[in-house]
Amino acid sequence: MYEENEMLIKDIVGAIRKFVRAVSLDTFKMSREYGLTGPQSAVLRTLFKEGSLSSASLSRRLYVTPSNITGIIDRLENKGFVERTKKKGDRRIALIELTESGNMLSSELPDPIEKRLISELADLEPEHVRILALVMNQILNLIDAKGVNSEFLELHHGHEPDHENKKLKP
What we know:
The protein is mainly α. It is built from seven helices and three strands. Strands 1-3-2 form a three-stranded antiparallel beta sheet.
């Protein structure tokens, strides 16, 4: 390691630790204050914004596997935040709907840290965003993070991918 880089390297590693800690604290806060995991809050936000959806639609919108979405919905149903109802005209399809308490909770949920980050990045000049993307990819290459899932919840304004690992069960 070059001596002149030592201080900068410490700053970079410190910033990465701070970032990871901020994400962790955001997740902990959601769990402590609302009793929800990231994927559970994403389901509630999606239903609040888009209305009743099938579990298959939720699975596609949040980029989680069908088996994971079933577990998330089961937990939310047990908490009384969602309910399954048969779709009119096709009883084979169950729609996931917010209950009154689920609707109230969804309206109070704060934005996840990813959404705040995306909003702030969107305000930067395109060249700065491009540089940040290059730097982040270089850092990920340095730590050989090829196998780490990179999908996010609430990334776009339309269909919003999941920031939790697809195989991660809440």
